[in-house]
Amino acid sequence: MTVSTAPVPVAANASGTTQTTTRRNRLWALVIYILTALYFLLPLAATFYWSLRAERGTLGFEAYRRLFEDANFLPSFSQSIVNAIIAIVISLVIIVPTAYWVTLRLPKLRPVVEFITLLPFVIPAVVLSLALIILYSRPPLLLTRTYESSRVLLVCVYAALSFPYMFRAVDNGLRAMDVRALTEAAQSLGAGWPTILFRVIFPNLRVALISGALLTFAIVIGELTIALFMAQRTLGPYMANLTRSKVYEPSAMAIVAFAITWAAMGIIQLIGRGQQGSIGGGH
Amino acid sequence: MKATLQSDVQPTNLTVRGAKRPSRLPIWHWLGVLPFFIFSALFLIGPTLVLAYRSLEDPDGGLSFVNYLQLTNPTVINAYSLSIRVSLTTAILGGLIGFLVAWAVSIGGLPRPFRSLTTTFSGVASNFAGVPLAAAFIFTLGRVGVVTALFELLGVDLYGTGFSLYSYTGLVLVYLYFQIPLMVLVILPALDGLKREWREAAENLGATPVQYWLHVALPVLIPSILGTMILLFGNAFGAHATAYALTGGLFNLATLLIGQQISGDVLHNPGLGFAVAMGMVIIMGVSITIYSILQRRSERWLR
Fold it and tell me: Which pLDDT tens digit goes with each residue over B223-253?
């Protein structure tokens, strides 16, 4: 309770108008919120409704059953999961030391690293696909000839695409914990570098690492563009094909995809309360 | 004396260690960042440089701008202009709506749970793009979509009025689904940065809410709002998967044109395709640069 230095009548007047504006504001806020919520929920509701209608005359989960029984669904789904996990591991192995060294030892490199991690936003996926095909479809870097080598290329590109998210997550995590003090404290207690990394830094970075990993997963799991031009049988191209060839299954698939994204984002929100949300890409 | 001596020892030690750092960095210090640079060079920078180089090659292998001069080709112009129109529209609309939503859950005074629900949902929706998003809209506003059917029950033939999901309007409606949430996520921290004291000071000086917004809040927020709208522009401009899934890749957008060029050389000139792709990189680069400049400027006030 601070004493107001303003003359009493003015203060009373001000708080009076503030109260009416607050009430009017809240009404407007509610109207805006409901209208936007309608726009966002209608497509989900409509899709869910369609996904229940596969069986004539009743509502049920037939579309989901058909989707999971489709001979191509689980193979492409599992392939995408494996791709995503490998991409996450590569990204972690590359970004954690980079962010650590840039924070602690090589601060001069920070602008360069930040610039490079912005590149996936600057190069649209379809342009990157074209560029990759030019570079990797002829010797000495022939990678697009077999399915498996294209897949290696795809996973590496996914790891590179996750750099912006992973770097920002890890960098935020490092800033929140005063790496220098922790490192020097550990050093003065006689800890070597492996001990510092695995017993001091990583445990403190857990939330950042999981957030970065889940965000990467959400972006990579249904990626269409690059997988399409690398002729991969992953979830993205499978879903695009399904949308064109089937009636009810695509709705079940869209709901499943939404649930996966929701799960990833929900966990991020849950473990990182108070940290800033994620900013997406890859449309 | 002793105390000063002791406190002198540590800084000296530190400076000795500090002085070592720039001149004699052990090689393994660089090993920590080396994989990052190699990887980026192999999968981001290298391919883009090769693309840039090939876009400058004329059919005989010499260096020239001939491919860029051909960007005036009507197919290319149409694709670029449609892409730019869709991106501008969704950036402005998405920016305005996103700003209003962010305002509603922060300053607008909606209860706290609205806000956390909105940020989580925005995180989901801004990443819920590509095929599932296109599919969701087909089931909603496609020819047999639920909302189309509801309109029919009301006696309105939506597709008879000229509306189509597979048109400019449709694409705008779909893109807003990831544009609005992105705006909300980026602009919310900026709105939080508006200090309560500024509003109180303005009110104590007799300012009306409109005056407060026009002369205090908006000038502080404008760099953020504009910057984020430019980010949204780039976000829509580079989008490929959603449009591809919606239209089967046959719509005349710049990204889809590049896609068609990859699968079938529709421009009958690979070099021109490379130039179209590089044009996109340049436009994206300019947008992201303006965005980061404006974002940095707004941080001065909002931190």
Answer: 899 999 999 999 999 999 999 999 888 888 9
DSSP assignments along A2-20, one per residue: PPP-S-HHHHHHHHHHHHH
Residues B66 and B73: their CA atoms lie apart, in Å, by: 12
- A283, pLDDT greater than 70: no
Interface residue of B21, B24, B30, B36 to substitute, partner A, most A CBs within 10 Å: B36
Task: Give one DSSP letter per residue of A55-96, joined into a string.
Answer: STTS--SHHHHHHHHSTTHHHHHHHHHHHHHHHHHHHHHHHH
Task: Return d(Cα A5, Cα A278) in angstroms, integer.
Answer: 43
Any B CB within 8 A of A40 CB: yes
Residue with tokens 């601060």: A107
Question: Measured between alpha carbons, how far is A56 from A161 in angstroms, rounded to an integer?
Answer: 43
Best mutation site among A127, A155, A166 for testing chain B: the one with the most B CBs within 10 Å?
Answer: A127
Interatomic CA distance for residues B207 and B211, integer angstroms:
6
SS (H, E, C) B249-260: CCCCCHHHHHHH
List of residues 6+ apart from A222 with CB closer than 8 A: A80, A235, A236, A239, A257, A260, B130, B131, B132
DSSP label at B72?
G
Rounded-to-integer distance, Cα B78 and Cα A190, Å: 66
Question: pLDDT for A104-159, tens place per residue?
Answer: 888 888 999 999 999 999 999 999 999 999 999 887 778 888 898 999 999 999 99
ipTM given for this complex = 0.86
**Cβ(B271)–Cβ(B66) under 8 Å?**
yes
Among A55-59, A166-170, B73-77, B137-141, the least confident range:
A55-59
